[in-house]
Amino acid sequence: MFQLLYLGRDYPQGYDYFQTRLKRAFSKNKQVSDPEKIEVLIAHGNYVVKELEALYMLRKYRTLKRRYYNDN
After folding, report:
1. Which residues span the domain enclosing 36?
2. CA-CA distances (angstroms) from residue 59 to 26, 42, 56?
3. Which of 18, 44, 53, 60 could form a disulfide with 8 if both were Cys (CB 3.0 to 4.6 A apart)?
4. Rounded distance, CA 5 to CA 15, Å?
C-alpha cells in the first residue's frame, strides 16, 4: 500500500483523488478472507504499480523529448 501511496504523489488528477480511490479500493476488499482471492487482489495491485510506473516514465520521456528535440 505504501508503494501505491508513494506513486500517487505524481498522479495526473492529484494526490487527494488518488488517495481517496486507493482507500476506497482497500475498504471494498477488507472483508475478503479467501487466500486465492487475496492473491488475485495482490496481483492486481502489482499490475497497477507497474502501470503507474510506465505512465510516469512515458510522461518523463515526452517531457525530455520536448525539451531537447524541439521541432522548430
Report:
1. 1-70
2. 27, 26, 5
3. 18
4. 8
- DSSP 3-state of 70: coil
Per the structure, how many domains does the chain have? 1
Q: Which three three-digit cell numbers place residue 34?
A: 479467501
Averaged pLDDT in 10-residue chunks for the chain of 72 residues: 80 86 90 93 91 87 82 59
Q: Give me the amino acid identity at 11.
A: Y
Q: What are the CA-CA distances from residue 37 to residues 1, 2, 29, 49 (Å)?
A: 17, 21, 10, 19
pTM across the whole model: 0.69
Nearest partner of 9 among 19, 20, 1, judged by Cα: 19
Q: Which residues neighbour 7 within 8 Å (Cβ) at sequence distance 6 or greater?
A: 49, 52, 53, 56
